[in-house]
Amino acid sequence: MSRSVLVTGGNRGIGLAIARAFAEAGDKVAITYRSGEPPEGFLAVKCDITDAEQVEQAYKEIEEKQGAVEVLVANAGVTRDQLLMRMSEEDFASVLDTNLTGTFRVVKRANRGMLRARKGRVVLISSVVGLLGSAGQANYAASKAGLVGFARSLARELGSRNITVNVVAPGFVDTDMTRALTDEQREGIVKQVPLARYAQPEEIAASVRFLASDEAAYITGAVIPVDGGLGMGH
After folding, report:
1. Which residues form a coiled coil (predicted)?
2. 109-165, pLDDT tens digit by residue?
């Protein structure tokens, strides 16, 4: 049965792979994006998730065109890497506002329709960095680690309404962001990964789609690492 799916930050990289995976399964897929030209084949809604009013307007458009959101994938995120001594308050606050508070905004708004329907699937995209830590990424790691506590609290709060809330924590993924690294940097990263390669965005998408499926109906509050073994033990 075709469901109404929303993927935030679904215009490129991991988000786009997730959106495509749901579309290929026959779901109606909306994506949010902040800038540029969105990919074709989806209901693309321009939305900055740091703005509560834009989030509200995005949901109204999605609900009007494809129905209340039944599956939410909170993927939109930013980085502003800097060593702590050089990190400004703005560097820290802006990353938290997008990655953590922005996720709060989109999940809270989706929750309205899910509670009414007494069912729903929420998947938050965290990162291995949120579990392992990473020098120069204290703001990003804090925001991604925060998603775990957020998800597990909601799993307890919403479970009786048949709403599951889970986290996928990708490792290093072959996207435009990682392709911008030097060959030396890429080789250094791969040496840390037991499977000795980068993930493909489609591998992250497969785990997300599983968590949103009927087969995963009894999984909630889980953190699923898709990281080639990089963060094992966390």
Report:
1. none
2. 999 999 999 999 999 999 999 999 999 999 999 999 999 999 999 999 999 999 999
Please state the domain count of the chain: 1
Catalytic residues, which ones?
A: 140
Q: Tokens at residue 220, please?
A: 């909630």
Check pLDDT > 80 for residue 181: no
d(CA 16, CA 220): 24
Structure tokens at 127: 């990162």
Cα 129 to Cα 99: distance, rounded to the nearest angstrom:
13
Residue in the block written with tokens 């990473």: 134
Structural domain contains residue 221: yes
Q: The pTM is what?
A: 0.96
